[in-house]
Amino acid sequence: MAAHPHHDLPRDASAGARPRPALAQPAGLLVLRGLAGALLLPHGLGKLLGWFGGPGLAGFAQELQGFGLLHTAPMPLLLALVQTGAGACVALGLWTRRAALLGAAFLAVTVLLNLHGGWFWMHGGIEYPLLWTGALLAVALLGPGAWSLDAWRRARHCHEIGYGLFD
């Protein structure tokens, strides 16, 4: 008996679901990872360099002070570098799991600092940073996907000593 052409395609977890194309998962991970990183990156660059209407390091230091957090050098620089680096790495799929966890931790602190503002972000609440915390946690759990620099490095350098040290 000849195999049905769709029998070798992945199926969704729900019973009776139609087969889905093999490209759906890597494409979905690329979209999730790309957006999560690309939306984190400019916020870090705004703090670091004042780009995109951001406060720059001096303004970011004032924001930290306003929250009662450590605001003296090098803390604003380190935090801006964390947010910028995590965003870039997640978007590119480079050291993805660690970068996504770092970005999620950064945003989780933002959630905690904005609890007093309620739910809606337009009123200073936690909705927006909580959404992106969840997206970054999903990336950390799911991994970078096949269309990432991590996958390329793994395929190209898996034989090298120490590979995987920063995955």
UniProtKB/TrEMBL annotation:
Cellular component, GO annotation: plasma membrane
S-adenosyl-L-methionine keyword on record: no
Record keywords: Cell membrane, Membrane, Transmembrane, Transmembrane helix
Topological type in the membrane: Multi-pass membrane protein
Tagged with keyword Lyase: no
Top-rank taxon, per record: Bacteria
Transmembrane segments: 30-53, 73-94, 101-122, 128-147
Chief localization: membrane
Location(s) in or outside the cell: Cell membrane
Family to which the UniProt record says this protein belongs: Belongs to the DoxX family.
Protein known as: DoxX family protein
Annotated organism of origin: Coralloluteibacterium stylophorae
Lineage: Bacteria, Pseudomonadati, Pseudomonadota, Gammaproteobacteria, Lysobacterales
